[in-house]
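Subject: Sanity check before I submit

Could someone independently write out the structure tokens for this chain? I want to compare against mine line by line before I put it in a report. The sequence has 66 residues.
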Amino acid sequence: MTIPTRGETYSKLMEYLRHAQEEAATMAHLSNANDERENAKAWLMVSENFKKMQHTLTILATKGLQ
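---
Independent answer below. Compare away.
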């Protein structure tokens, strides 16, 4: 078993967040297609928050990996 590195862990986190963001965007699209406007807006907000989290994580990793 190898010891995890910061870079590997960052990569995993970014991948998980990207997948979560994509799935939330899909949920927004599906809700919108079913005329569930309020749910669609909520899922879109979740998707956008995942994007913000990715940005924050990138800033933290940039500072920590220097």
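---
OP: Matches mine. For the report I'm noting this point. The chain has two helices and no strands.
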